């Protein structure tokens, strides 16, 4: 299993686990909270079948990556992305970020990109700025995030169970789009994450990516569901095109937050059309 060292903490290396499969143009997929690179299985298989090289990795603190006590801010997380692209010497990259992964895409493009990335996609993404304040009235009230942190501190497994029900909109999309077994699989992955990472990432969600987005000049696709109960489209994806001239917005009708599973066929077609 391939690991890439991205830092050190005391006597231990901080390493991220990644998978590098296929040939052709490289597509780097960055997962959401609190899952892992394995959450891309429906997109990964479609991209491989279409002849792309598919790279996924587990964010520090999640999946099979190291679980350090620090580094859960977006500057560090995006630098981990930078280290991966540099180590693999990837060129003409399409960078795709789901949910929290959209933050890595935005910050990487705003701070670390040196021409390796030529297309980006924000899928059910956290960008452009989630925290509501006087400069961002379209955002989400800060007390919502404090409530999430309190629920995690009380019983993160109970919090995760409730979160995943909203993540996939089980009651809205019905059993044909997501099985109880698939939700349980996501629950198991989330349970395996570091508690520190699980909690600390909530503070990272308050990051403002608007200046990062303004620096993106490559072709950009935004995919978002209009029934997203985790990151409502009006506060997130629906605002991105105004910050990136020429970007395209694909709205998945009835799509929940976890639309890369529940609406994988539509999502994959939109992504493949954008990449070709």
Automatic annotation (TrEMBL):
Coiled-coil annotated residue ranges, if any: none
Pfam families on file: Abhydrolase_1
GO CC terms, sorted: membrane
Domain AB hydrolase-1: 26-263
Keywords in alphabetical order: Hydrolase
The family this protein is said to belong to: Belongs to the AB hydrolase superfamily. Bacterial non-heme haloperoxidase / perhydrolase family.
Protein name in the entry: Pimeloyl-ACP methyl ester carboxylesterase
Source species: Bryocella elongata
């Amino acid at each position: 299993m391939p690991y890439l060292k991205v830092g050190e903490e005391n006597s231990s290396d901080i390493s991220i686990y990644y998978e590098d499969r296929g040939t052709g143009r490289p597509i780097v997929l960055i997962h959401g909270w609190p899952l892992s690179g394995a959450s891309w299985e429906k997109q990964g298989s479609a991209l491989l079948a279409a002849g792309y090289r598919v790279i996924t990795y587990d964010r520090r603190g999640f999946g099979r990556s190291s679980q350090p006590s620090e580094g859960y801010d977006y500057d560090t997380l995006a630098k981990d992305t930078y280290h991966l692209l540099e180590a693999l010497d990837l060129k003409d990259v399409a960078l795709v970020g789901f949910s929290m992964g959209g933050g890595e895409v935005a910050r990487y493009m705003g701070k670390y990109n040196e021409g390796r990335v030529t297309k980006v996609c924000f899928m059910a993404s956290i960008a452009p700025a989630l925290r509501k304040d006087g400069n961002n009235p379209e955002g989400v009230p800060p007390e919502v995030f404090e409530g999430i942190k309190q629920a995690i501190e009380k019983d993160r497994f109970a919090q995760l169970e409730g979160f995943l029900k909203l993540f996939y909109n089980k009651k809205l999309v019905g059993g044909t789009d997501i099985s109880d077994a698939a939700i349980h699989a996501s629950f198991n992955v989330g349970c395996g994450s570091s508690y520190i990472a699980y909690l600390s990432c909530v503070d990272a969600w308050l990051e403002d990516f608007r200046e990062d987005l303004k620096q993106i000049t490559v072709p950009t696709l935004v995919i978002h569901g209009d029934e997203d109960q985790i990151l409502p489209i009006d506060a997130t994806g629906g605002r991105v095109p105004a910050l990136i001239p020429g970007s395209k917005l694909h709205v998945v009708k009835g799509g929940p937050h976890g639309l890369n599973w529940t609406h994988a066929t539509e999502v994959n077609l939109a992504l493949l059309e954008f990449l070709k």
